[in-house]
Structures are given as structure tokens and as C-alpha cells.
Amino acid sequence: MNHVKKIIIGVFGGVGLIFSILGLVFLLSPPEGVPQSARINNRPVTTIEEARQLYRILGMIFTLIGVPFLGVGAGLFMRTVKKANRRRALIAAGDSVTAKIIGAGPGLVTINSMPTYVMKCAYEQDGQTYIFASDAITFYPEEFMGKEVRVWVNRNNPKNYYVDTDSLFVML
After folding, report:
1. Domain ranges of the chain
2. In which band, very low, low, confident or very high, does the pLDDT at 170 lie, cut at 50, 70 and 90?
3. Who contacts 159 (Cβ-Cβ below 8 Å, separation ≥6)?
4. Residue 147 phi/psi, 5° resolution?
5. What 8-state DSSP symbol labels residue 37?
6. pLDDT of 2
7. Coil, helix or strand for 121?
8. What are φ and ψ of residue 100, in 5° steps?
């Protein structure tokens, strides 16, 4: 997992966890007394019931802010883990082919305000041509055009593959 993803997952997950916990604390632990400086509608809180109402409102606000952040962080983490597990399973199966790099196009994300690119690779078997796309890379792969790259592929399901861009640097 690259550093940018770790930071994004950590920020979303951390903010979500902190806000969710604070919200639950406010919701589940009623106040013991009346807070000294608390106000509702610009009026001081004077009764324990008003203090409980304030805690419920704060608890709901913090929880409603925290849960979406926590969900985004958890979703990104699960997606990253699933992708890494799929990649490990493909490599463990040991079934790779050598594909020719036929082009590159713009990626869908930017990293540190830099554009990313996706390499397109072609592999032919039994008269059928398979096109594979790499994960996003941070440089335009002009010097690799026409060269070969290793692609780990599930022969039963060619849509399940991983273009090993790291193998390009070993070949240099």
C-alpha cells in the first residue's frame, strides 16, 4: 500500500473513530450535574433535563459526523486489503504471461497534484488477444513502449489479473 493511501485511510478512519466515540460517550453517559458554561439557544442551561438534552444533541452531531468518515476509512481499507489479497493469490498461483506494452492513457487519480497513467498491455493466445491495464503509475511510460511486462493472470478468468509494473525496473 503506498503512503498516500495509508495517510488517507488513517485520516478518514481516525477522524471517524474519534468523532464516533465522542458521540457515543455523549449519548451513553448522561451528565451528573449542570455544566457551568453550557448554553442552549443562547440561554444558560439550568436544569439537569436541559443538560441531558444538550448531551443528546452533541452525541447525535458527533456520531452523525463520525460514522460516514469511519465508513469511508473502513471501505478504503477493505478495498485495499482485498486488492492486495487478490494480487498475492495470483502470484502464489504462479501463472504469468508476458505481454507487450502497447500504449498508455491517463489514470483516474492524481497523486500529489501529479497526473497518473495506466499502461495497456496485449497478450495473444490461441488467436485471441487479451488487453490488460496496469494500476496507476506516476510517470508516463514512454521508454517502456513495445517492451514486455509480466502479467499474473487467472487462466480460468482472464479478467482477474495483475500487471507487474515492478518487473519493468528489474528488466532495465
Report:
1. 3-91, 94-171
2. low
3. none
4. -85, 170
5. S
6. 63
7. strand
8. -95, 135
Residue count (the chain): 172
Contact criterion met (CB below 8 Å) for 154 and 90: yes
- Residue 78 amino acid letter: M
Quick one: cell of 101? 506494452
Give, as one character, the DSSP assignment of residue 75.
H
CA-to-CA distance for 78 and 85, rounded, in angstroms?
Answer: 10
Q: Does residue 108 sit in helix, strand or coil?
A: strand
Element (H, E) at 21: helix 3-28
Residue in this structure with the C-alpha cell 458554561, named with its chain if needed: 37
- Exposed e or buried b per residue across 21-53, where buried means at least 16 C-beta atoms within 10 angstroms of its C-beta: ebbeebbeeeeeeeeeeeeeeeeebeeeebbee
pTM of the model as a whole: 0.67
User: 169: buried, middle or exposed (CB in 10 Å: 19+, 13-18, 0-12)?
Assistant: exposed
| Owner of C-alpha cell 482477474 | 160
Q: Residue 103: which H helix or E strand, with range? A: strand 96-111
- What percentage of the chain reaches a pLDDT higher than 90? 31
